[in-house]
Amino acid sequence: MGAFVISKKDEDHYKFVYTSRKGKIVFTSMTYELKMDCESDIEIIKANAETALCLKFRASSGKYFYKLIINSKIYAISRKFNTELRLAKGISEVALYVSKAETLDFTGADIFADID
């Protein structure tokens, strides 16, 4: 099972990534000004994961990716995949695992602090 990881970006904006069971980033959210909006969208994605639309695209580099869309709103953009088969596997992971994923909040943690 994967996990949603919330982090704080520059200029006090928030974002989340969904990581696979192996720790690889599957998709990344848009940015949010408020953490509660970020958390709310995670819950919307979890609740609608099985019916979410994953609209497929091909980048100019030839790699494939998808946009995660629920009720006409784009919630996240996937990482780039080398083949259509890997893209299909990435999309199937959304339907299978996202609704059961835990949420980890790293916005207040200083994970690089010196330990005395």
TrEMBL record:
Stated name of the protein: DUF1508 domain-containing protein
InterPro entries according to UniProt: YegP-like_sf
